[in-house]
Design a protein that fits this description.
75 residues, alpha+beta, 3-stranded antiparallel beta sheet, two-stranded antiparallel ribbon, 2 helices
Length: 75
């Protein structure tokens, strides 16, 4: 769907759409700072089969486009 426009073309935050499964797949930077992890865990435990990634706010339009794409194909 789209890659972080402010980085190179490799190893960058990226948003994918899996039309078959009707899912949005996000590649981002691992959240490694203790403060953010503490905030996340305060909302509830993070299951072993899940992870948290960070993507820049400048990718909001790409996320919106991905969400609209999934909504459209799901209709």
């Amino acid at each position: 769907m789209g890659i972080d426009p402010d980085t190179g073309q490799g190893n960058c935050p990226t948003v994918f759409v899996d039309d078959e499964r009707q899912e949005i797949v996000i590649q981002g930077w691992k959240v490694v700072d203790d403060g953010t992890h503490a905030e996340i865990l305060a909302a509830g435990p993070l299951p072993r089969h899940e992870t948290v990634v960070r993507i820049p706010a400048r990718m909001a339009s790409i996320l919106k486009e991905a969400a609209e794409s999934v909504e459209h194909t799901g209709s």
